[in-house]
Amino acid sequence: MFFAEWCFMDSHFLTRRIHSLTGVVPVGLFLVYHLYLQLYLHSGAETYNNSVNSFYDSPLAIWALVIVVYIPLFFHAFLGIHLIFETTVQPSYTYFSHLLYWLQRISGIGVLLFIIAHVWNAQLGPWMAGTWGTHFEHLSSGFSNPESGMITKTVYLLGVLGAVFHFANGLNTFCMTWGIALTPKSQIRIRIFSILLFLILSASSLYALAAIW
């Protein structure tokens, strides 16, 4: 009985750490790289399309994307959904910590839905229609559509900001889970860093989207 309980606790311990790790590496780093690419929107259609398409020039690009990004992403997402129903808020949390706790979980579900829609709209849909590769034109036409443009803009804005918040705030949990920030003073430093990271990545995202807004 003791051995079975120990194995369960040990596997749960390991699963939580893998879940935390995949949220930062590689998913979080890919998010930062993806947001960086969006800055090329200000350079025009040809430069932006070439920058995005250059990643797919390698015959291993799709495999790398699936193995390094999509599999860890969906592992992190579906385990995160499971943890929503399993974990409880600590009574010692402050009001602000409670707010971040629930925003982290709500944003996680929202971002998962946004990613599924984004992959279909920006990758699978154009590929099936034979228009894959014209990413700038696809984005700008979606934003400027007189009927659905405002909805597209709103979804993109909420999706991008939700992803940035989920990543930046998730660094707090990551640092505590992995023993990087265990003291109150170190946790305050990490909280300040995550807020600054959120502001920087949000400003970068808004600046990028302004090119086609």
From TrEMBL:
GO terms for cellular component: membrane. SUPFAM superfamilies: Fumarate reductase respiratory complex transmembrane subunits (SSF81343). GO terms for molecular function: metal ion binding. This is Succinate dehydrogenase cytochrome b558 subunit. It is found in: Membrane. The keyword Membrane applies. The chain crosses the membrane at residues 21-41, 61-87, 99-120, 155-180, 192-212. Keywords: Heme, Iron, Membrane, Metal-binding, Transmembrane, Transmembrane helix. The keyword Metal-binding applies.
